[in-house]
Amino acid sequence: MNDSTQKTLSKVPEVTLIFWIIKIAATTLGETGGDAVSMSMNLGYLVGTVIFAAVFLVAVMAQIKAETFKPLLYWATIVATTTVGTTLADFVDRSLGIGYAGGSSLLLALLLGSLFVWHRTLGTVSVSSVSSPKAEMFYWVTIMFSQTLGTALGDWTAGTAGLGYTGGAMVFGALLAVVAAAYFWTNVSRTILFWAAFILTRPLGAVVGDFLDKPLNAGGLDLSRYWASAALLAFMLSSILLFKQRAAKAVH
Asked: Residue 247 pairs with which residues in a beta bridge?
C-alpha cells in the first residue's frame, strides 16, 4: 500500500460499536439541528438547505484536504450531511409537494444511482477501499443521499404509515438488529451490510429526534430543539474524546 493510499484510508474510521453509537447520535442531532434552523428560527426548508449545503461543502473540502484521520473533523462532516439531509428531505417532501412516498422514491433512486456510478467508476463501494479524492467525493455524496433518504423514510413511517415516533423507532431498530444478525451469523457482503446499516440508522435518528422535539399532542416530548441539539452534541463530543477511534485498514 503506497503512502497516498495510507493517508486517505487513515481519514476513514474503523467500523466498531462506538462508530454506530456516535452515528445514531449524529443522525438524531441532524434532525433536531435541522429543524431548529428551518422551523424554530422560521427560516424555512429552502434557506435551511442552502445554509447547511454550504456547511456540508466546506466540511467535505476540509475532510478531503486533511492528510490523516481527524475524528472531530470526520464527525463534523457527518453531522453536516445529516443536517442538510433533514432540511433537503423536508423541502422535497413538503415544499415541493411530492409527499413522503414520492420523496423517498426519488431519494432512493439518487442513492442507488450514486452507488452505481461509484462502483462503475472505481470498481467497489467499500468504504475501506477509498484511496483518492475522487473516491472520497463519491463516499460523501453517497452518505449525503443516504442521510436525506433516511429523513424521508423516518417521516413517512412515523407520519403517513401511522406508526408514530416510538413505532417507527421500533421498526428501524428491529431492521438494524436483522442487519447485525446477518453480520455475525451469515456470509452476506460486509459492504452491503455496512450501507444497509448506515442507511437505517438515519431514519432511526430521525424518528428519535422528532420524538424529542415534537409537541405532546403529536406524540413527542416537546423538548426545546436547541437544548436537545446541545445535549446530543455534548454526548457526541464526549464519546469522541473518551473512546479513541482508529483509522480503517485497507482491504487487500
From this structure: 13
